[in-house]
Amino acid sequence: MARLVEAGLAQFAGLPGEMTVAAWLAGRRHMDGTPGLACPPGLVSVDVMLADGALETLGPFGASGGLPLRSATGQALIPALYMLSGRPGAAWCRGQAAWPARYRLDALNPLPPAEANLAGLLAGHEGALAWIESVVLQAVAAAGSGQVQATPYPAEARALDAHIKDAFDPAGLYPEAPLP
């Protein structure tokens, strides 16, 4: 993170200098827990290897464009995640003061005026959904602490997480994320 701060990405100024970008993105501790704010400020896109070995770029998605999904796995995964985001468990999670699930499905339904950014799906995933190969960041104004407060892990959140994990990693290749 120290090199990013030196390069002008002030949003990383309060983080440990030796922390890697992958550790920052995968960790929950430095992510905003507010529903609808899954995508960390300045995160543009993430190149990942999915559980079946498919390479995919997760980034801006929707009306303002972005890159098309390049793998059949990604083309099946994203519609499945949008279907999950319409389930009652996802609506229940969005209605909480802090996002209670491990995986940030709310990246698909951000607070206006933001648009969906598929990279936000990986915020705080603890390495359980995909292998991060590279990350594209942009400088933004430094925000507040953004640290997640410990919240209960109710049944609705556990069920939603199980569906998301299964969509990303049906064979269980990646480890389970630790409980929040």
Automatic annotation (TrEMBL):
Domain of life of the source: Bacteria
> Under what name is this protein listed?
Uncharacterized protein
